[in-house]
Amino acid sequence: MQLQIDQEKKELKSHGNYGFPLLVSYERLSYFETGSFLWHWHPEVELTLVMDGEIAYQVNDSLYHLKKGQGLFCNSNMLHSGRGIGGGDCSYLSVTVHPRFLYGYSSSIIQEKYTDPILKNPSLASILLEPETDWQRQILERIEKIRILDKERPVSMELQMQIELLEIWRNIFEHVEVGGEEKKEYGRDMERIRTIMEYIQKHYMDKITLEELADQIPLCKSECCRMFKRCMNETMFEYLLNYRIEKSLELLRQTQMDVTQIAGLVGFGNPGYYSRIFRRKMGCTPLEYRKDRKKTAVR
Questions:
Q1: CA separation for the pair 274, 271 (Å, rounded)
Q2: Which residues lie closer than 8 Å to 181 by C-beta, 6 or more apart?
Q3: Cβ contact 179:117 at 8 Å
Q4: In Å, how far are 11, 223, 229 from 234, measured between CA atoms?
Q5: pLDDT tens digits for 149-166?
Q6: Is the C-alpha dihedral spanning 81, 86, 87, 89 positive or negative?
């Protein structure tokens, strides 16, 4: 499995529908071919509860080491990604909900007084949820209630889910500092990051220079590198390599092109270098990956 995202890194997966904009999904890192999910965002708020294992979960520039029983609140439109820790797997519950499910209709007092101050707070991209903290434990318990409702599906399921989510939001509203105007520079950096990622996604098959990336913002090359590393905990070069490898997986699975052709199509001028990077990231060669996927398809 791979995330389906557009050129702006927005996830294309449907999170519920207009009539009921909520999705409860049961995820596992090993479901993803790279054992991780790449950077993406969506307008829905996401609540995560770790069911088993551990995950390195990053939202914008904040990196969390989540363990069983812990959770995370990820705000609307925030870039986030996740990967395993120490080669281990992780299963987790994801509840994604569009904010309108909470505030009802545009310009309602619920939206203006309670949801927008959180949704539009640039310093509130995410909240670590730990069972040792009373109000956070209450949120984790309500996420678990939503899971049970999704499994048992009582006749009033939608209504009960909305009640639980409103209580979660009340808890967040009462325990975090709203506002956040003091972090305008932080918000500007994240917009710059999105611009760089979008450029890489459009041009990953070409030779990309540091000058080209810096010109997109624009910043000088050294400051561009420092900003990306500071915000994303990886260099632009590492991000580019990861993205190219991710795109090559589709070609290995879905075409009969040889490794040299595929390497060139995803931006690697040297097929030997492509194979070395592939092995480092996937634990096998491109040909071994293709052979293994064929065996899996036969089963």
A1: 5
A2: none
A3: yes
A4: 21, 14, 5
A5: 999 999 999 999 999 999
A6: negative
Alpha helices per DSSP H over the chain: 100-103, 109-110, 116-119, 134-152, 157-175, 184-203, 210-215, 221-232, 236-254, 259-265, 271-282, 286-298
8-66: per-residue pLDDT in tens? 555 556 777 888 999 999 999 988 878 888 888 888 999 999 999 999 999 988 899 99
Cβ burial 76-113 (10 Å sphere, 16+ → b, else e): bbbbbbbbbeeeeebbbbbbbbbbbbbbeeeeeebbee
Q: Are 80 and 59 in contact (CB under 8 A)?
A: yes
Q: Which residues sit opposite 96 in a β-bridge? A: 23, 46
Domain ranges of the chain: 22-179, 184-298
**Two tokens, residue 295:** 């065996």
pTM of the model: 0.75
Cβ atoms of residues 136 and 143 within 8 Å: no
Using the Cα atoms of residue 26, residue 31, residue 34 and residue 35 in order, give the sign of their dihedral. positive
Class of domain 22-179: mainly beta
Q: Which residue has the tokens 């520039």?
A: 61
Determine the 3-state secondary structure of 66 from DSSP: strand
CA atoms within 13 A on the CB side of 231: 26
Structure confidence at residue 105 as a pLDDT band (50, 70, 90): confident
The DSSP symbol for 183 reads: G
Distance CA 212, CA 137 (A): 46
Which CATH code fits 184-298? 1.10.10.60
Residue 236 φ then ψ, to 5°: -60, -35
Higher-confidence residue: 118 or 11?
Answer: 118
